[in-house]
Design a protein that fits this description.
single chain; 571 residues; alpha+beta; 4 domains; 5-stranded antiparallel beta sheet; 3-stranded antiparallel beta sheet; 17% strand; disordered C terminus
């Protein structure tokens, strides 16, 4: 048995939070909600090896709600709090860089994971950090931020009644990591060998869904629980890392941070709690009753809905043949009695309709009370209704999810503020903002000098645009109607098409570019004048407007040259 050393202060705080979660039943509730969502709804039942039926109506309800909230094209827009042209130009560049950051971090996939996690358990979190780089490269080329989704069971708060994360005295993030990896980090941090030797594997418990001892692969030196402790102080954000007995990541300070680099989404607020209420938990009792009713119906059908043979065992020598088609029966003294006296069949008993009616009623009412009926989820025949009518019905049914959409918008707004602070902190040699042209390629890089971001007073706005098929089709039909009526030119029509539109926007643009090139070679100039009329249209996206990017770069170059603060570089 190894020698026990005193645990760290960080670990004691973790144990206190773990005890609170166990008293509140958070770990068991999370595991139960995930199992019911995934369809493992008979977990732990001893059924004698028989697979019992399941009618999972929780998953479609969750998928509908998650899709309704997540099917929005998200755009982060920075704007200055004053009318200063220099600040406006810088904010436009930051808006460009936010789009690049969104793509780099894979936020289109992460947002689905966070929204789905919040719908299942009640709340889910995103942790933002700078990617580690080789020594000597820190600060070069601007910050390289990364995102990681964190389950709520891995987040420990100093005050479980305070919903505002920035008002927490400290926040702990727990994760299971390989011991060998942590020892390498401890060695790089300069810890002595005797302390590194005290970083030992431990057994996984019920604190994280999917991280139990049976889920881990037994290889190498094993895993142990690693804790990241975050504290907001007047001078910035302080953080350190610890195992049970060793603080292997000495405390460091990131000056200038006023927010924890952690943002979360609560599906619905729980009164007096920092945690949320999800969709799955309240539906579990109904789901259990539906499954029980379905299992009882299946058992009743197997037992009583088929004819049962009754035979004279003394005179029938091969009773197994009764269940085979075309088999011959062997009987004794057949001449002494008719065949009906040897084998008879019990009449099947019909199963009452009350059980099926109860089951159907439970499913239907559960879906309707959750706002996820057939009409709400869009299970209608599109050939029997116009796209506008379907869109209007969908928007009306989605009104019950306005609270969740607002919670998602609030999370992204907080994330945008965190990004801005981290850009200002980690842009040691300035911020390099790539600008993309219409072809999607980077054709210009604008450099912001170091220290400029810390001087800005910025407002954050989040634009959400539905990108479901009916919304995209509705916008495209409006543009086509305007083109047919002659209100816009073909060039303006192509420039206004969405990236997700069904019309071949890129092919239309290629045709317009070829026309413009041919017109430029026309000696008379008539072709150029004809083909470039109305050709300045764009879809309004910062990443798709090459002319807008060039004008923005020129504006910023003039502003910076006038103030002597930096320069614009071409990529």
């Amino acid at each position: 048995m190894r020698e026990q050393h005193p645990c760290t202060e960080i670990w004691r705080r973790y144990e206190a939070g773990r005890e609170h979660h166990r008293r509140a039943g958070l770990y068991r509730e999370d595991e139960r909600c995930h199992r019911f969502y995934e369809g493992e709804q008979w977990f732990g039942l001893q059924a004698g090896g028989e697979e019992l039926p399941t009618l999972n109506f929780i998953r479609p309800i969750c998928k509908y709600k998650v899709t309704t909230v997540a099917m929005n094209d998200t755009a982060i827009i920075y704007s200055p709090q004053s009318d200063d042209a220099d600040a406006a130009a810088v904010c436009d560049l930051l808006t460009h860089f936010a789009a690049v950051q969104w793509e780099h971090c894979g936020m289109d996939a992460l947002k689905w994971r966070v929204i789905r996690g919040a719908a299942i358990t009640g709340d889910h979190y995103l942790y933002c950090y700078e990617e580690p780089r080789a020594p000597g490269l820190a600060g070069r080329g601007g910050p390289r931020l990364a995102m990681r989704a964190v389950d709520r069971s891995a987040v420990y708060l100093a005050d479980e009644q305070e919903a505002d994360l920035d008002r927490q005295e400290w926040i702990l993030l727990a994760e299971r990591r390989p011991v060998a990896q942590i020892r390498r980090e401890a060695k790089n941090a300069g810890l002595p060998a005797d302390r590194i030797a005290r970083i030992l594997p431990d057994e996984a418990d019920d604190t994280q869904v999917g991280s139990g001892q049976e889920d881990e692969v037994e290889s190498g030196e094993g895993k142990c629980t690693s804790l990241l402790m975050l504290r907001l102080c007047p001078d910035g954000l302080r953080f350190c890392r610890s195992t049970r007995e060793v603080v292997y990541g000495p405390e460091q300070c990131i000056p200038g941070l006023r927010h924890y680099p952690l943002c979360g989404m609560r599906w619905e607020e729980r009164q007096g709690s920092a945690r949320g209420v999800g969709v799955v938990g309240p539906l579990i009792p109904n789901q259990i009753e539906v499954n029980r009713t379905l299992a009882r119906r299946a058992i009743s059908v197997k037992r009583f809905s088929f004819p049962t043979a009754v035979y004279d065992q003394d005179r029938l020598t091969n009773p197994d043949a009764l269940g085979r088609v075309g088999a011959s029966l062997k009987v004794k003294n057949l001449a002494g009695s008719p065949l009906s006296a040897l084998v008879q069949y019990l009449t099947p008993v019909g199963v009452g309709a009350d059980a099926a009616a109860l089951q159907s009623e439970l499913v239907t009412l559960s879906r309707e009370l959750e706002g996820a009926s057939d009409a709400a989820t869009g299970q209608v025949d599109p050939t029997q209704a116009s796209g506008e009518a379907i869109k209007a019905a969908r928007d009306q049914s989605a009104l019950v999810l306005n609270e969740q959409t607002a919670a998602y918008r609030e999370m992204i707004e907080r994330l945008a503020r965190i990004w801005l602070e981290l850009w200002a902190v980690y842009a040691g040699e300035g911020l390099a903002v790539p600008l993309r042209g219409e072809d999607g390629r980077v054709n210009r890089v604008v450099g912001l000098p170091a220290g400029m971001l810390g001087q800005l007073e910025v407002e954050v706005r989040i634009d959400l645009s539905p990108v479901d098929p009916y919304s995209v089709l509705s916008r495209q039909m409006a543009l086509e109607n305007a083109l047919s009526a002659g209100w816009i030119t073909f060039e303006e029509y192509v420039g206004a098409l969405d990236r997700t539109s069904g019309a071949p926007r890129d092919k239309f643009r290629a045709i317009l570019e070829r026309r413009a090139a041919q017109g430029a070679k026309d000696p008379s100039g008539e072709g150029a004048a004809e083909n470039t009329a109305g050709g300045g249209g764009g879809d309004g996206g910062a990443e798709d407007s090459g002319a807008g990017a060039a004008q923005l770069a020129e504006l910023l170059a003039g502003a910076l040259a006038a103030s002597g603060r930096g320069e614009v570089t071409a990529g």
